[in-house]
Design goal:
Bound molecules: NADP nicotinamide-adenine-dinucleotide phosphate
Number of strands: 15
Largest sheet: 7 strands, parallel
Distance between the termini: 14 Å
Helix content: 40-55%
Length: about 375
């Protein structure tokens, strides 16, 4: 199977290649790597592949792209919007697996998150569908945590307040966050011994507002700050990131009647992992033990964390979860606002279950389907 990879050196593409190597997925593949910026350059390694990859191909060369049975792209929506219609218009019948949002709501697309919607993916393959798109990172992580609760019919509404890492915006933003941390850290440390806490906060705040503070990739200070707006504005005051919560969940779970999902999406200064504080309105005042059982059985990677200070601090943080496939769900308790309101906190590595892992698994699912 000849598989083309576009966007392989970005955040998602790098994690995808690492996971494919860990799982031995290159075996039997003929990989072709593409580049929008340096065609002709050396390709990355694909250990165990059936053929050594050729030099980097031009990601806008329709003929080379069309020679692939499957294209896996982590390049972003601009590339998809340009090249997907050109490929399909030229009669290409291959399988298109994409991390970008561009095609998620297209009628012929299936949003893939197989621990949650394997039957939907199977039905799509049998129906001859060829476009398989990874969900929004925060939505996929929400469903890996509480998709079972939503599907159970117990949930009347979900309000989710997110805490999203800088790497969710790509490699350049994450690198800039570290530069910001360095810039602020240097300014603060220089006066820490002489000016004390209040002095440090004044110096760091001045530095954050200075023209020299690096903001060209993120557009704003993020280190020692937060940004309660992600993506474009939508009608009604929502951001597009907030709009995706209900729109994509409904498609992933294949719900006839959408469960209302809304909240405020916030970019924070963590490096990796998207977290969310979730309020759920139940259809009836269920016992917490019933909800705990449903959460535990959501997926093999979903972990219920005791609502204690120690378990929360050691297991329910980006520091604990980064680089793992675990999706912990903790802080589960009844809210004081109503007997049928509960809250919980969940997070996961958005580069794994929120991006690369559903694509990697979709490639394997397709190979099994095509070979079987
Ligand atoms: P990214 O890191 O910005 O990489 C995208 C492309 O940018 C690369 O393939 C590369 O293309 C180019 N690039 C330019 N400068 C680069 C640098 N310094 N390092 C690496 N690559 C650089 O984007 P991403 O975060 O992987 O996202 C890819 C797609 O997945 C987007 O549509 C995004 O919305 C979606 N997504 C991302 C996440 C996430 O957590 N980041 C989660 C879910 C979905 P060339 O090699 O062709 O130059």
């Amino acid at each position: 199977m000849r598989v083309g990879f576009i966007g392989w050196r970005g955040m998602v593409g790098s994690v995808l290649r690492a996971r494919m190597t860990e799982e031995g997925d290159w075996a039997g593949l003929e990989p072709v790597f593409f580049s929008t910026s340096s065609p002709g350059g050396p390709p990355p390694e694909a250990p165990g592949a059936a053929h050594a990859p050729p030099p980097l191909q031009d990601a806008f060369d329709l003929d080379v792209l069309r020679s692939c049975d499957v294209l896996v792209t982590c390049q972003g929506s601009s590339w998809t919007l340009q090249m997907h219609p050109a490929l399909r218009g030229a009669g290409w019948q291959g399988v298109f697996i994409d991390a970008a949002s561009a095609l998620r709501m297209a009628p012929e697309s299936t949003i893939v998150l197989d621990p949650i919607n394997a039957p939907l993916i199977q039905r799509a393959m049998v129906a001859g569908k060829k476009d398989y798109i990874g969900g929004n990172c925060t939505v996929s992580l929400l469903l890996m945590g509480i998709g079972g609760l939503i599907s159970s019919g117990l949930v009347r509404f979900v309000s989710t307040m997110t805490y999203q890492a800088a790497s969710g915006g790509g490699a350049r933003k994450m690198v800039e966050l570290v530069r910001q941390m360095h810039d602020l850290g240097a300014a603060g440390v220089a006066v820490a011994d002489t000016m004390g806490g209040l002095g440090v906060s004044e110096v760091v705040t001045q530095r954050m507002r200075a023209a020299e503070h690096p903001t060209s990739a993120i557009g704003s200070p993020l280190a020692a700050n937060l940004l309660p707006w992600i993506d474009k504005p939508m009608p009604g005051g929502q951001s597009r990131e907030e709009w995706k919560g209900q729109a994509e969940s409904t498609r992933i779970l294949d719900l006839d009647t959408p469960v209302p999902i809304d909240g405020i999406a916030v970019r924070v200064g963590s490096l990796r992992c998207h977290a969310q504080g979730v309020t759920i309105g139940l259809n009836r005042p269920a016992e917490l033990s019933e909800l705990e059982d449903i959460i535990r059985n959501t997926s093999p990677w979903t972990r219920l964390i005791d609502n204690t200070p120690d378990a929360t601090r050691s297991q329910l943080t980006p520091a604990a979860v980064t680089g793992t496939l675990d999706v912990p769900v903790g802080r589960l308790r009844r809210l004081g606002t109503s007997p049928d309101h509960i809250c919980l906190f969940t997070l996961g590595d958005q580069l794994l279950w929120g991006a690369a892992e559903p694509l990697r698994r979709m490639l394997t699912i397709w190979r099994t389907h095509a070979e079987g």
